[in-house]
Design goal:
Layout: E1 7-11, H1 15-28, E2 33-37, H2 40-44, E3 53-56, E4 59-60, E5 63-64, H3 65-72, E6 77-82, H4 87-96, E7 101-103, H5 108-116, H6 127-136, H7 157-167, H8 172-179, H9 183-197, H10 202-211
Parallel strand pairs: 1-2, 1-3, 3-6, 6-7
Antiparallel strand pairs: 4-5
GO molecular function, one term: DNA binding
Keywords: DNA-binding, Phosphoprotein, Transcription, Transcription regulation
Organism: Denitratimonas tolerans
Length: about 220
């Protein structure tokens, strides 16, 4: 059994990195089928049908990994696996649709543990990346020490509830059923939530929910 994933795509131009990522995937999801690609072109040929999970390096020899993430947005769960830990790489990847961001500075056991957390709605993030994101989303304070949040960007109670449920790993349909509203209405709430929080992925939204104390 491979848990929530039965197939994954590993995209990295280095054979050693692909082997590291594949080993972590097998540890996290025993029995998972793995397809490897060493370039962007090779990866594009491997996404029909799209894989449930994709681990993507950003520095590919024939193009940026972000372009692949954009292609897979809404079709696959994409997790960046890279050496880049700067904002210039992190935020474009998240805005493109990446739902996790891990650095190649750990053992495959540690990566496997982070990948297992996907089933519980926990975005796989290296600790330093999580800290960087939390700092980025920390509220700015005015002279009196009060958060400078524009009233038009404040979440409504219903939007806050939708954010909390999404951050816990629930699908749009599950949120709709729980709140007795349509999935289309949930999608509308999410669009407004992403706009107000200035985020572009579930990973960013989940981190903002955690910062606000909405999830344990």
């Amino acid at each position: 059994m491979s848990g929530p994933f039965d197939r994954a795509l590993v995209v990295d131009d280095l054979a050693s990195s692909r082997a590291w990522l594949a080993q972590a995937l097998v540890l996290a999801f025993p029995g998972i089928a793995i397809v490897e690609a060493g370039s962007l072109a090779e990866a594009v040929r491997s996404i029909d049908p799209p894989p449930p999970l994709a681990l993507v390096d950003l520095g590919l020899p024939d193009g940026p990994g972000v372009s692949l993430i954009e292609r897979l947005r809404g079709r696959s769960m994409c997790v960046v696996a890279t050496v880049f830990d700067d904002d210039a790489h992190l935020f474009p990847a998240l805005h493109a649709g990446a739902e996790g961001y891990v650095l190649k500075d750990q053992g495959h056991e540690s990566l496997a543990e982070m990948l297992r957390g996907i089933a519980a709605g926990q975005p796989p993030l290296s600790p330093s990346i999580a800290r960087r994101l939390l700092r980025h989303f920390a509220p700015q304070h005015g002279p009196a020490g009060a958060p400078a949040v524009a009233a038009e960007n404040a979440l409504t109670p219903r939007e806050t509830e939708v954010l909390r449920l999404i951050a816990k790993g629930m699908t749009r349909q599950e949120v709709a059923q729980l709140l007795a509203i349509s999935a289309h209405t949930v999608a509308g709430y999410l669009k407004d939530i992403y706009r107000k929080l200035n985020v572009g992925s579930r990973a960013e939204a989940a981190l903002e929910a955690a910062r606000r104390g909405l999830v344990g």
